[in-house]
# Entry
Amino acid sequence: MKTKELDLAYKLSHALDESANTVSANTAERLASARKIALSRKKQGVAVPAFVPQPALASYGSALTPSHSRWAWLGRMGLALPLAALVFGLFAIYQFEQQQQIMDSASIDAEVLTDDLPISAYLDHGFDAFLAKGDK
# Structure
């Protein structure tokens, strides 16, 4: 279907080009004056401000060469890379804190198991006060 439309457009264009050469001088003058009138009535274009975001590597302008276009992905990663670094950092901090908590628990368990006091002494509320006084 597209080829039929293109063929018709080509035939119309060719027919108009041929008939343009056979237009009388009077008709050509009337067409020229009608064109001038139409152009004078045409509304002048109003400049509308528009925001056009620029890529991070906009300093290269529109003359990006192939050597610069291989770095274009860096401009698109302007938000993704810091976000990924933040997520990775938070995960690392969480893992470090978990490891510290495990080490502290293991240290307390080792001290309890190697001490001569019975476990019931550690459960006594007065024993906590005794330990607090012993640290000072």
